[in-house]
Amino acid sequence: DTGVSQDPRHKITKRGQNVTFRCDPISEHNRLYWYRQTLGQGPEFLTYFQNEAQLEKSRLLSDRFSAERPKGSFSTLEIQRTEQGDSAMYLCASSLVRQGPGDEQFFGPGTRLTVL
Amino acid sequence: GNSVTQMEGPVTLSEEAFLTINCTYTATGYPSLFWYVQYPGEGLQLLLKATKADDKGSNKGFEATYRKETTSFHLEKGSVQVSDSAVYFCALSAHAGGTSYGKLTFGQGTILTVHP
Lengths: 116, 116
Description:
Largest interface: A-B, 29 and 29 residues
Order of helices and strands of chain A: EEEEEEEEEEE
Number of strands of chain B: 12
Number of strands of chain A: 11
Distance between the termini of chain A: 33 Å
Largest sheet of chain A: 7 strands, mixed
Order of helices and strands of chain B: EEEEEEEEEEEE
Helix content of chain A: under 10%
Number of helices of chain A: 0
Oligomer: heterodimer
Radius of gyration of chain B: 14 Å
Shape of chain B: globular
Structural class of chain B: mainly beta
């Protein structure tokens, strides 16, 4: 399977704990995005990387959130001191940037986080 | 800022009925427009896209036309099937120069249920 993969698929944690999610993009893709989706809503942008550089972070991304993409391959999203409001589906997507509009993003299956 | 508004759902139709899901947007410049679909138990996948005014995107019998004058990108299908039951998201990606800026702004999604 050469699609975007995410691990774990589900995570249940207690409030105050730290969690880390991993995303493996399609191998030749140079852009990687993180989104968050709550029930009944569309995904909301969190941050994105081009190769290993983090180029933009949303205001939604508080200081408790950090993302990395070492060596421009897989990425991790860490949430420190989780809160119940962090419960959501965390989606990863990747794309190959070309000189032109409309680059398609390919989404992974998501990691569903439940904070008790 | 950029925003996408979709018609309120859910939408329930009988097989072979005509489908329209309305989508309007607000954006600076000339965004690319997308429809993504999420089938039950699956990740988001691109259904169709249009990158400039008057372009028509089409796939699997679905169509949408980029209308700059009405800032709309309505999704249509002439005859729906039970297998079209899914959540549909309208989205845009703003441009910066000649390269897609990247991050997607989504609408809230429309649940479509098709009965036999």
